[in-house]
Amino acid sequence: MSKLTLSQLSNLLFRACDDLRGNMDASEYKEYIFGMLFLKRLSDLFDQERVKLEAELRERGMPEGAIATQLKNPDKYTFFVPEDSHWSTIRHLKTNVGSGLNKALERLEEENIDALEDVLKHINFNRKIGSNVLTDDTLVDFIQNFEKIPLKDENFEFPDLLGAAYEYLIKFFADSAGKKAGEFYTPSEVVRVMVEITAPQPGMSVYDPTCGSGGMLIQTRDYINECGGNPLDLTLAGQDRIGTTWSICKMNMLLHGIPHADIRQEDTLRHPQHKKDGELQRFDRVLANPPFSLNYSKKDIDFPGRFAVWMPEKGKKADLMFVQHMIAVLKTNGKLATVMPHGVLFRGGEEAEARKHFISKGWLEAVIGLPSGLFYGTGIPASILVFNKADAQEREHVVFINADRDYEEGKAQNFLRAEDISRIVHAYRSLTVAGAPEIPAYGRRVPIEEVADEGYNCNIRRYVDNAPPPEPHDVRAHLHGGVPTVEVDALQAAFWSNYGGLRERCFVPRKKVGVPPLGGFDNEAEALQVAEAQAAYSKSSPHSGLRSQPSALPAAYLDFAPEIEDRRQLADMVERDESVHIAHKDFMDQLEGWWQANLPHVEALAPAGGKKGNVYELRRLLFESIEDALKDQTLLSPHQVRGGLARYFELFKPELKSIAYSGWNAELIPDEDILQSQFPELLKEMDEKRGRIAELDALFTAASEEDFEDEEDTGVLPAEDVKTLKDELKTFTATYKQAFKELKSLAADLFTELNAADQIPAGKKKKDYAVKGTTGAPDFASAQALLDLVDSTQFQSDFVAEIKMRMTLGQDSYTEAQKIDSKLTRHKALEDEGKQLKADIRATEKKRDELVTAARAKIDSDEAKRVILERLHRILLATYQRFLRAHQRECLKALESLHAKYAITATEIEQQRDAATAKLKGFLEELGYE
């Protein structure tokens, strides 16, 4: 089998989740997934090491008996796997499967007690969920899904693949678990902010007192890698109160190849576990996201000297108790970052005393406000508090950063974008330098005296108000028309300097230059204001090419260009503007130049001469060079430039790691890319069928709505109508069939009467006057021949009236049945079409998988390299085009705002109102109400 990519491994693991999803929720079955993954990984690793050990012993010429003894020696393996826990036993479990799996976990833990004590035994596959337990059949299917997942090192595209997949699972379970997710997962974007702010260095010790699944410790290790350090030089420690969460963290560390991480389980406030020589162990860096607003107990609390200010035991005020613990275990030159609810920043009582204590000691370095809705289980906004003991005695300021407006909305929760992270970190690093200027409406250095004057209230908005400024409104423009030039000028830096020519296309000077409509200025001050604006214009430096030039006309007011009659026309104008296209092309050309210059570094990432590539070295090189390459452009902020590359790199990190360790592998080419290049007609066919399914679904949905009318005569029917028509069809069908049967009998009887009266013409037979057709397709009109004979002979019979009645009843019922059947047939044809299309897509998808596998097998490394590089290039451009489109939308939004404010004057509104009033009055007079 080819090596597993992260995408392939994740898909296999998620399929295993599907077996349990219908039986319990994610918070309940996550332990089973992790436990089974751990069993399979350790068993495969054991087999891998056993084969290697046996080969080494044979090469040394050891006797067979000694080899057999050594192969059973637990000290020879990273983890010793006994027979009860080995996959060769587990894979054959068919009865009492839950008990077999429990025994396997227990024996594995017992044989590796130093590393796995209490990690696995608590997982119980026989646990009752609601009123049910997992059946043997369900667990057998569950095992068989893991049977398909090879987990030896040689199966992985890059060494940390399994750890990355484990993180994907943790994120998946967090997304599925809702409120409970907060117990074990902090959004990775928030963790990234905290890691970059504390900037751990090789050789440091890092501690998380409420470690959850261990994400902060793992991101710290990755950060050291990115900075070019050796992550093995880090000392990692963590503690968590919840046993199952602690177990997840232990497995996370082991699967990430961090067996040295010291993870403990206990209540951190009451019984901190990391001690040295009877004292609390000290750390260089502390990172934490403690559970918000807990109660706690002072009873039997260890190391009470940690707490200078005791919070109330009740009232859910334990937040700053966690902070004091972190400060207590921080080295004298250490730094910590912790997530806190906003309440701790401004509440009074003991919390105010604690803030005073932190600030007077000089420990509190920064307070960072985050957007709301970032965290699982709560929609309230949170903050990051940064404490720094280094140079604390000389610290005279607290940095306040208000970043609560910078985020992107998600379906279930909000998240920080890479550019938001860049902005926060850059602001922190800038503002913590002495003498740094404030960042308007974002961050500032606040003197401790000012905070003290506010009663040590650290409410962020007291110091950094990021509320948008009030929308300016020019009363004269509202009354008499025109767009104030000063408001147009305000867009110079953001838009006109980049889209030169767009301003001139959108705005023209007012006809009366410098003079408002309806006569001159109201007073001397207003005239002076216009004169100053004119002077400012005259001093402006002209720009070359399509760069915007200040109007040479001394107009205080402008008008929208004559062709802009409606606000909706602005979108098309901005979209078609040549200066916008030129500016965007200039930027993309610079980006393309940067890519081409760095392409050799990307190509060199693959292994060469037995040496693996270094993904983190490539990351550092790209980040350093892109800022320099794009420093002269003004369309995007530096944070967007850095953030765009950070987002891009995070997206491709698994693929880049695979390239660094395994080269240009066709497995890294997404299925869709292979299909697009090799089987475009197949994709087109599937798209067309999906489109038609969407149309049909829309039709049936519309038919179910009240007051539905099939105006386009599609043939679709409401479900209630279908039922009614089927009932009517049944009735009409039964009626015409009965009429047909009776008609045939009556016709035969009439023929017999005529024949007895010798009224049948010579040469004619009974069949010539018989009723034609079948029960399914009756010919009621064929009875007319017999009636015509009766008329011609003037024969009298009681059967005639009965026959006419059956003919009329039968024909009418048959006609109605045909109409109804036609309607139902059209409707059913649409239903059948939808079913067939879905069946076709399922069949095509199966065929597609086979085609992709076959096509991928034919792709050599050179072709794979070409396709992968083309994808890397394409998505890089798309990443930054997204920013350019956003900038263009902001420009359009600003123009639309000006149009909405000033395009229609108050006078025009009054005229429209008066006209409407007069029209209404006329209607009322006509109706006699006035």
Automatic annotation (TrEMBL):
Pfam families assigned: HsdM_N, N6_Mtase
Domain named N6 adenine-specific DNA methyltransferase N-terminal: residues: 9-146
Family matches, as Gene3D superfamilies: 1.20.1260.30, Vaccinia Virus protein VP39
Enzyme Commission number: 2.1.1.72
This protein's record includes keyword Metal-binding: no
PROSITE patterns xrefs: N6_MTASE (PS00092)
SUPFAM superfamilies: S-adenosyl-L-methionine-dependent methyltransferases
Biological process according to GO: methylation
Keyword list, A-Z: Methyltransferase, Restriction system, S-adenosyl-L-methionine, Transferase
Record-linked InterPro entries: D12N6_MeTrfase_N, DNA_Adenine_Mtase, DNA_methylase_A-5, DNA_methylase_N6_adenine_CS, SAM-dependent_MTases_sf, T1MK-like_N_sf
Catalysis performed (reactions): a 2'-deoxyadenosine in DNA + S-adenosyl-L-methionine = an N(6)-methyl-2'-deoxyadenosine in DNA + S-adenosyl-L-homocysteine + H(+)
Ranges for domain DNA methylase adenine-specific: 160-466
Superkingdom in the source lineage: Bacteria
GO molecular function: methyltransferase activity
ATP-binding listed as a keyword: no
Family label: Belongs to the N(4)/N(6)-methyltransferase family.
Alphabetized PANTHER family for the sequence: SLR6095 PROTEIN, TYPE I RESTRICTION ENZYME MJAVIII METHYLASE SUBUNIT
Protein name per Swiss-Prot or TrEMBL: site-specific DNA-methyltransferase (adenine-specific)
Organism in which the protein naturally occurs: Thalassobacterium sedimentorum
